[in-house]
Amino acid sequence: MIPIRDTTPSRNVPVVNNVLIGINVVVFLVQTMMPEPVIERFIFTFGLVPARYTLDRLAEHFSLGQQIFSWFSFMFLHGGFLHILGNMWSLYIFGDNVEDRLGPLRYLIFYLLCGLASGVSHFALNAGSAVPVIGASGAIAGVMGAYFLLHPHSRILTLIPILFFPLFVEIPAYFFLGIWFLLQFLNAAAAGAGAAGGVAWWAHIGGFLFGMLFLKLFDALPHAGVTRRMRPLTARKHSHRLQVARPDRSERAADIHATIAISPYEALVGTRKLVTIPTGLQRRIFRVNVPPGMEQGKVLRLKGQGKVGADGTRGDVLLKIVIQ
């Protein structure tokens, strides 16, 4: 299952999430420019190697600063293009909503703590391993754990490749993330305590569980006021261009009634949206022009785009505007 996007828009630009993605990409580009012997030493120095903390013959080659720093630097290293692409894409999909809830500063601390906790989870079961663990997947698993609690009924547009035919389906977030977590657990159980195939399954599991725990703890802590001051600076002017408008299932007439969301800025100046309306097994896409000066609750009518009525005529699509 390959996630494409979620259906829950964030109200603010995810500044920290974007910066984290940028840092990971820059570090990966630096890695690709290193010759083979240098990159191996680089990963062993800045990756998380459990045996460096349990075997004296390895620990003596590293300073105290290097030993501490690797607990954080490992989550910014990646082993290949597909590795970083998968991690950054997942962070892009799920991270903005979690930052929206926590605010930029608390989200940064939350992310780093999730990465640290994922490293501790791996270390606890692989204390003697000399294989470096790298990647942001443990920290991102924590973000996914927080998303699981925050938006369980959001929908994830997912690509499921069946032979040579791509199938796009919308899956509830609790089901998508639940299946993801179950697969991590099954792989971890099959691999035993180690990281089979270079994948630290227990780091993923630990990151996910600690992500849920840290979200609850952060929600219980008082705000420092940084988030409140930054909200006006990070507020989104535009809502998602691509939207899914689900029709009212209680409506049996030829007309299709649904809602679309726009921002206050778009209500003032106007906007254009691509709106997908699922009807039965069909998914019809409409280009919708929202004129300037739109008000809450106003209805846009797409004439002749509804269902075919009993008399053979086609109804309209009626899109109610929600400003948020």
Summarize the structure.
It contains eleven helices and nine strands. The protein is 48% helix and 19% strand. It has a three-stranded antiparallel sheet with strand order 1-2-3. A three-stranded mixed sheet has the order 4-6-7.
Task: Tell me what the structure shows.
It is an enzyme of class 3 (hydrolase). Keywords: Hydrolase, Membrane, Protease, Transmembrane, Transmembrane helix. Residues 256-323 form the Chaperone DnaJ C-terminal domain. It comes from Desulfatitalea alkaliphila. One of its GO terms (molecular function) is unfolded protein binding. This protein has 324 residues and is α/β, with parallel strands linked by helices. It folds into two domains: 2-233, Rhomboid-like fold (Up-down Bundle), CATH 1.20.1540; 237-323, Urease metallochaperone UreE, N-terminal domain (HSP40/DNAj peptide-binding domain), CATH 2.60.260. It is 48% helix and 19% strand. The strands form three sheets. Strands 1-2-3 form a three-stranded antiparallel beta sheet. The longest helix has 22 residues, at 81-102. It starts with a strand and ends with a strand. The mean pLDDT is 88.
The CATH level-2 architecture of the largest domain is identified as Up-down Bundle
Compute the number of structural domains. Answer: 2
Let me know the average pLDDT: 88
Q: Name the helicity range.
A: 40-55%
Number of helices: 11
Helix/strand/pairing class, anyone?
Answer: alpha/beta
What are the low-pLDDT stretches, counting only 5+ consecutive residues below 50? none
Assign the CATH superfamily of the largest domain.
Rhomboid-like
Shape: elongated
CATH topology of the largest domain: Rhomboid-like fold
Please describe the biggest sheet, giving its number of strands, its sense, and whether it closes into a barrel. 3 strands, antiparallel
- Can you identify the CATH class of the largest domain? Mainly Alpha
Task: Enumerate the strands of the largest sheet in spatial order, edge to edge or round the barrel.
Answer: 1-2-3
Written as H for each helix and E for each strand, in order along the chain, the element string is EHHHHHHHEEHHHEEHEEEE
**How many β-strands, per DSSP?**
9
Beta fraction: 15-25%
Separation of termini? Answer: 31 Å
Radius of gyration, CA atoms, in whole angstroms: 23 Å
